[in-house]
Amino acid sequence: MTTPGPAAYQPFGVRLREAMATHGPLCAGVDPHRGLVESWGLAYDLSGLERFAMTCVEAFAGDVASVKPQSAFFEVFGARGVAVLERAVDAFTEAGTIVILDAKRGDIGSTMDAYAEAFLGKDAPSPADAVTVSPYLGYGSLRPAIDLAGHTGRGVFVLALTSNPEGPSVQHAQRDGISVARAIVEGAAADNAEAASRGEMGHVGLVVGATIGSALADLGIDLAASAAPILAPGLGAQGATPADLRAVFGAALPQVLPNASRSILAAGPDVSALRAAAREESERLAEMLAS
What does the record give as the active site (predicted)? Predict the structure, then answer.
């Protein structure tokens, strides 16, 4: 069990901004799915999972702004797989690397309370710095996670505009002239208002795909005003380029934390090659933001 130090209780948006300024705006994926594990010459079993995860720790810890382990790829191995995930989260945390756990939890009432405590609570076995959550039982259903994250200096990333082809049927749907996605962004903006008043990013982030094209403009969404950290999957193997980020996010670009997984993990299993791939991507993104 990792006991969070004082830094973990500083506002999440502040810590993330500092990490991005230090290491560049990259979130490196830790996705041990079968194809990648086997492409590294590893057996797709618990031993291969552990080797994959700890190689990522060696390559990325202390060297990138953040990492995003995909919980499902560990859970598939049962309790022993979750133990490997916890070991990796602890190692990244000890190195000062921000961990965004991609778990996409979402429920109501006491169940959401339990999810919040499991991933963000002060007594959680291996708490992440932030966790992805799904708002499709209503943004208000996420209140236990949003509030607990605020109290502990952690964060949540709420699914808003995802890049999967099924997403628009729900996220673009409108009620009273406002899309579901816009309502989610406005909810995050309200929760981040205090941080915004200080010129900081808030603790309620948003997941917005880097491949969504003109959706933000089409739906009248002002991401820059939300003060939300924006986790942007889709860079690299999914087709988005650093240049696409500027076109998609516009004025909100300084808030964007692009996520790249397969395009970096393809450099494994060599630790030096993995680290170099992550550094190169981080530097490219930092240069783009500075231009």
Answer: 104 (proton donor)
Helices (H) and strands (E) in the chain, counts: 14, 10
State the pLDDT at residue 235: 72
Q: Helix 46-60 crosses helix 78-94 at what angle (to 10 degrees)? A: 10
Q: Which residues contact 146 (CB under 8 A, 6 or more apart)?
A: 156, 191, 203, 204
Q: What pLDDT digit, counting tens, does each position of 107-117 carry?
A: 999 999 999 99
**What residue type is assigned to position 265 of the chain?**
L
Residues β-bridged to residue 66: 27, 98
How are beta strands 178-179 and 174-175 bridged, if at all?
Answer: antiparallel
Domain residue ranges of the chain, discontinuous segments joined by + = 6-285
Q: What are phi and psi of 105, to 5 degrees?
A: -80, 150
Q: Do residues 211 and 244 make contact, with C-beta atoms less than 8 angstroms apart?
A: yes
pTM of the model: 0.94
Asked if 285 contacts 25 with a C-beta cutoff of 8 angstroms, the reply is yes
pLDDT surpassing 80 at residue 100: yes
Read off the pLDDT of residues 124-162 as tens digits, 9 standing for 90 and up. 999 999 999 999 999 999 999 999 999 999 999 999 999
| Residues 6+ away with beta carbon under 8 Å from 75 | 81, 82, 85
Q: How far is CA 48 from the centre of its chain?
A: 24
Report d(CA 70, CA 104) in Å as an integer: 10
3-state class of 40 per DSSP? coil
User: What are the distances in angstroms from CA 220 to CA 177, 178, 216?
Assistant: 10, 9, 6
Alpha-carbon distance of 199 to 216, in angstroms, equals 23
Give the domain 6-285 fold: TIM Barrel (3.20.20)
Inter-residue contact 82 to 53 (CB < 8 Å)? no
Per-residue pLDDT of 34-55, as tens digits, reads: 999 999 999 999 999 999 999 9
The C-alpha atoms of residue 15 and residue 41 are separated, in whole angstroms, by 36
- Catalytic residue IDs: 104
